[in-house]
Design a protein that fits this description.
The chain has 8 helices and 9 strands. The chain is α/β, with parallel strands linked by helices. It folds into 2 domains: 122 residues, 3-Layer(aba) Sandwich (Rossmann fold), CATH 3.40.50; 81 residues, Winged helix-like DNA-binding domain superfamily/Winged helix DNA-binding domain (Arc Repressor Mutant, subunit A).
């Protein structure tokens, strides 16, 4: 059985954070303590002192980073833990607004548990089920990320995903399939398309990039 890893947001209330970890009813084998503001450092260090005497703990500094920048980095860490067979819990008891959003998005994408402390103890919060994105669509998103976030035509995207297709019939079938995937990805908010003359410019969104970090 794997370890239980807590991702803990800290802003100013170290005692609230520590109480929530104690009252959630789950073990803790490892902790990532995350913060965004310089003024939070004192509370962060207090939480780290308390946890590091018992478990492996690491501080992650996200000062000045936007919500999805935090999401991308967090999901990279979470993916590594899940691939080791560990389970991840996100603690938003002392999260500021941006960290709260980042942790909630990360918990949903990684299918991890999310909890919140209160005067009556900590409780888990339900998040909406994540829509599955199949392997072909993850491959498209990954290609877009590797190309700097965008390509300037469906033709170019097909070439990057499947290589050059010389036979006209196969190419037309693949173009229709690519169009279908892009429509679905755009509907889910993972890509944005823009018509430029005869070509269709395709860009990956911040949410699409988060899927690549977790699943690509």
């Amino acid at each position: 059985m794997g370890e239980v890893v807590h991702v803990v947001a800290v802003t100013s209330e170290s005692s609230r954070v520590l109480d929530s970890i104690k009252s959630i009813g789950y073990p803790i084998h490892k902790a990532y303590i995350v913060y965004r503001e310089k003024d939070s450092l004192s509370a962060v260090e207090e939480v780290n002192r308390a946890l590091s005497s018992l478990v492996d703990s690491k501080i992650l500094n996200f000062e000045g980073k936007k919500v999805y920048q935090v999401v991308w980095e967090l999901l990279g860490v979470v993916r590594q833990e899940i691939e080791k067979g560990n389970s991840v819990l996100f603690n938003i008891s002392d999260a500021d607004r941006s960290l709260c959003m980042a942790l909630m998005i990360s918990a949903q994408i990684s299918n991890s548990k999310l909890y919140l402390g209160s005067e009556n103890g900590a409780t888990f919060l339900q998040t909406p089920p994540l829509k599955k994105v199949n392997g072909d669509r993850i491959k498209i998103l990954k290609v877009l990320v590797n190309e700097g976030g965008l390509v300037d035509s469906i033709n170019r995207l097909i070439e990057l995903v499947d290589g050059k297709i010389e036979e006209q019939k196969k190419y037309m079938a693949q173009r229709a399939r690519m169009s279908y995937h892009l429509n679905e990805l755009e509907e889910d908010g993972l890509v944005v398309t823009e018509r430029k003359g005869k070509n269709l410019k395709i860009s990956v969104t911040d949410l699409g990039k988060a899927y690549v970090v977790m699943f690509g």
